[in-house]
Amino acid sequence: MRKILFIFLLTCVWTTAGAQNVKLYKKTVKALSSAKFQGRGYALGGANKAGSYLENSYRRAGVDEVTRQPFTLDVNTFPDKMKMSVDGRRLAAGRDFTMREFSPGVKGNFPLYFVDTLNYSTEKLFRDLELPRYKGALVVCDFWFSYKHREDFARLQSKDGAPNGGLIYTWNEPLKFYKAYAERVADKPIFWVLDECIKGGKSVCVNVDHKFYKDYECFNVIAKVAGERSDSCYMFTAHYDHLGNLGRHVFYPGANDNASGSAALVTLAEYFAKHRPKFDIYFIAFSGEDANLRGSIWFVNHPVVPLEHIKYLFNLDMIGDNNRVLYCETSDAGLPGFQKFQAINARKGYFEALNRGKLAANSDHYPFAERHVPCIFFENEKGDAFQYYHTPQDEWKHAVFDSYEPVFRLVVDFISE
Known about the structure:
Layout: H1 2-19, H2 22-32, H3 46-61, E1 65-77, E2 82-86, E3 89-90, E4 97-99, E5 106-114, H4 122-128, E6 138-142, H5 143-148, H6 150-157, E7 166-171, E8 190-194, H7 195-198, E9 203-208, E10 211-225, E11 229-239, E12 244-245, E13 251-252, H8 255-274, E14 279-286, H9 294-301, E15 310-316, E16 325-330, H10 335-348, E17 353-356, H11 366-370, E18 375-379, H12 404-416
Parallel strand pairs: 5-6, 6-7, 7-8, 11-14, 11-15, 15-18, 16-17
Antiparallel strand pairs: 1-10, 2-3, 2-9, 4-8, 5-9, 10-14, 12-13, 16-18
Helix pairs in contact: 2-8, 3-8, 10-12
C-alpha cells in the first residue's frame, strides 16, 4: 500500500512538473537574450531575426497555425560610433552615458555649461549661452530639474531656441536606456550621463552616429491552437522586441524584458497543443512595443479575429523575477477576471498577493484595454532582476526564473476553471 501511495505521489509530481516545460523556457530566454539577436532591436535586424526564431519555436511546439502580421514604423537608432570623453577621460557607453531616443548623431568638441539650479534664472541661462566662451556649449542639468522647467529646456532642444550645441541630462547610477526608439529626430543631440562622470568637467568630445529608418518593416508572430469552439478565444501576448544597440559594441540583451514573457508564450503554446482547450487560443508575439506599442496598436486596428470574440487576454511582460507579489493591470472589462485570479491565488498560494496598479500605456495590453477587451497585464517587478531593467546587464547570467512557474499555473488554472 505504501509503495502504491509513493508511486501515486511521484506520478502527481511528474504531472505537475510536466505542465511547464522549464527546460524549454530557459533555453528560449537564453537564445533571445544572446548576442545573435543584438538586443532584438532594429539597427542590425535583431528584432526580425528574433521573430523568425519564435516562428520556428511555435512550430516545434506543435501549434496548428503560425502566421506573420507585417507592419511598418519610423525609428531612430544608434548602430555605429558611440564615443564620449570628458576632459580627455573616456566614458563607457551604456554604463556612463547613453542617448535620448530621438537624438541625432554628433561629432566634435564642445564646452560645457552647467545650469545653476540653486539660483536658477531663465534670463541668465539664455544670456550666458550668448557669451563667446559658451558658443555651441552642451548644457548640463539634472534631469528632474530640467523636467520642472521643461518649457525652457524645450527651447534648448530647438535649433532656433538657443545657440547651445545640445543637452546633457545627469542621472544617478544605474544609468538606464529609458526609451528605445523615436519616430522623429530632434534638432540637437541629447545625452544621459552619470552625474559623477560629468561633474566639474570643462569640455566634452563626442562622436556618435545615428540612423533614422522610414517605414521599417516589422512583423507580429501569431500562433493558434484550435479548441473545440471557435466562436470565442483566449489570447496570450508578449513583446519580443527590445532596446537593441547603443553603438556597434553595446547591446541590451533583455533577458527579463521581455525574453521572459516571449519564452512563456512558447511553453504555453506547447502545453495547450497537448491539452486541447475548449476555445481557440492565440499566442501573439508583438514587435514594436519598445517603439511605442506599434505592433499591438497595428493588431487592434487589423485584428485576425473580431476583438469582441476575445474572452480574455493575458499580457506577459517581465515575468522573470522573484518578487512574491505579482503586479497586475486590468481593463475595466477585465476586472471580473482579476477577481477570479485573486480567488485562484488565494486557494493555491502562487503569490503572496496580486497587486493591481493603475492602467497605463506601458505595455501591449493597453491598446486592447482602450477597445474594452477583457485583459490583464502581469509583471513581476522589483525583485532581484529589476535592478538590471533597461541596462546591458539584463542578460542571461542575471536571469531569474522564480515567477515563471506560478504565472504559468495561474493562467492555466484560470482557463481550466
